[in-house]
Amino acid sequence: MPVKCTRCCVKVAVLKRPKTSDALCKECFFWAFETEVHETITRAKLFKPGEYVAIAASGGKDSTVLAYIMKLLNERYNYGLKLVLLSVDEGITGYRDDSLETVKRNQQQYELPLKILSYEELYGWTMDAIVRQIGLKSNCTFCGVFRRQALDRGAVLLEVNKIVTGHNADDIAETVLMNILRGDIARLQRCTLITTGTEGAIPRSKPFKYTYEKEIVMYAYFKKLDYFSTECIYSPNAYRGHARAYLKDLESVRPSAILDIIHSGECMSVKDGIKLPTQGLCTRCGYISSQEVCKACVMLEGLNKGLPKLGIGKSSKVKRRVESLCKDASKEEESC
Ligand SMILES: Nc1ncnc2c1ncn2[C@@H]1O[C@H](COP(=O)(O)OP(=O)(O)OP(=O)(O)O)[C@@H](O)[C@H]1O
């Protein structure tokens, strides 16, 4: 016998919500999904009326649903926002060129302006050229560092007040796990924040902080949204893939694992006296950095000098880690 929707009790349920296990009809799922994102936005006071907000749009499922829902909620609840799509072309043939075609269609479908910036115009390098030089190891580090800055540069160009990204609950839980595995305390503290970049940079928010990836896919599917679903051709070795696989395993036995990990990340605090990097401005390019020279500038210098490992070298990282562990151990011995 068909199961009735547990919310309206009238229509037949067409899905089981991955987050709550509720059996819902399509309309009730849309309502629950949209209302939860609205509540996330209002509880965290993400926007003020009149703000100009850039939606970081890659053409993938998350940012396509984000663009759709930002427009919908802005109209439904009168947020009073001016919206624009901001895309970065990393120069990955057969991947980003196709996904940007999707963004261009979204621009027409959602009637939003679109700005595209490319790595080639900003850095003089495409990811295709970078991978030709460095191979398929550490390439995601280059891409991530350059993209982060490219979005900042785009936001400055557009003079927006804020950027929103499609990072979802799964992405954040994966990042918590990765930061634990790497012992990266500074990032562990920051990665669960719904808004980052409040110290000097253009703030960045994640309206999907509590939204499950599976539900985003369902929403896009039932709404028949036009999105690009191919994985990046250069990311097969990314470390994140292992954290993702582990998280999916946990989710299959306990769906709340995703929110539980985010909650754990939020609850972790750094003991007094531990020095954390502070955000300042890069002395070369003027964009946000926790070092005197930002990582993007160091990496770019490495590429231009034919020394691409500059700044990402494992040996220097391991050496620094060992030195800091030795320092901690000797401090503890002294206090004993
Ligand atoms: N090339 C890009 N241009 C603009 N924004 C981007 C780009 N790549 C990623 N982003 C932003 O960062 C978010 C997280 O990116 P990530 O690479 O994790 O992709 P994802 O989880 O597959 O998301 P999506 O489905 O939107 O591609 C995206 O949702 C989007 O808001």
From TrEMBL:
<dbReference type="InterPro" id="IPR035107">
    <property type="entry name" value="tRNA_thiolation_TtcA_Ctu1"/>
</dbReference>
<feature type="domain" description="Cytoplasmic tRNA 2-thiolation protein 1 C-terminal">
    <location>
        <begin position="281"/>
        <end position="310"/>
    </location>
</feature>
<comment type="pathway">
    <text>tRNA modification; 5-methoxycarbonylmethyl-2-thiouridine-tRNA biosynthesis.</text>
</comment>
<dbReference type="InterPro" id="IPR020554">
    <property type="entry name" value="UPF0021_CS"/>
</dbReference>
<dbReference type="InterPro" id="IPR032442">
    <property type="entry name" value="CTU1_C"/>
</dbReference>
<dbReference type="InterPro" id="IPR056369">
    <property type="entry name" value="CTU1-like_ATP-bd"/>
</dbReference>
<comment type="function">
    <text>Plays a central role in 2-thiolation of mcm(5)S(2)U at tRNA wobble positions of tRNA(Lys), tRNA(Glu) and tRNA(Gln). Directly binds tRNAs and probably acts by catalyzing adenylation of tRNAs, an intermediate required for 2-thiolation. It is unclear whether it acts as a sulfurtransferase that transfers sulfur from thiocarboxylated URM1 onto the uridine of tRNAs at wobble position.</text>
</comment>
<comment type="similarity">
    <text>Belongs to the TtcA family. CTU1/NCS6/ATPBD3 subfamily.</text>
</comment>
<dbReference type="Pfam" id="PF01171">
    <property type="entry name" value="ATP_bind_3"/>
</dbReference>
<dbReference type="InterPro" id="IPR000541">
    <property type="entry name" value="Ncs6/Tuc1/Ctu1"/>
</dbReference>
<keyword id="KW-0808">Transferase</keyword>
<keyword id="KW-0963">Cytoplasm</keyword>
<keyword id="KW-0819">tRNA processing</keyword>
<feature type="domain" description="tRNA(Ile)-lysidine/2-thiocytidine synthase N-terminal">
    <location>
        <begin position="53"/>
        <end position="231"/>
    </location>
</feature>
<keyword id="KW-0694">RNA-binding</keyword>
<protein>
    <recommendedName>
        <fullName>Cytoplasmic tRNA 2-thiolation protein 1</fullName>
        <ecNumber>2.7.7.-</ecNumber>
    </recommendedName>
</protein>
<dbReference type="InterPro" id="IPR011063">
    <property type="entry name" value="TilS/TtcA_N"/>
</dbReference>
<dbReference type="Pfam" id="PF16503">
    <property type="entry name" value="zn-ribbon_14"/>
</dbReference>
<keyword id="KW-0820">tRNA-binding</keyword>
<dbReference type="InterPro" id="IPR014729">
    <property type="entry name" value="Rossmann-like_a/b/a_fold"/>
</dbReference>
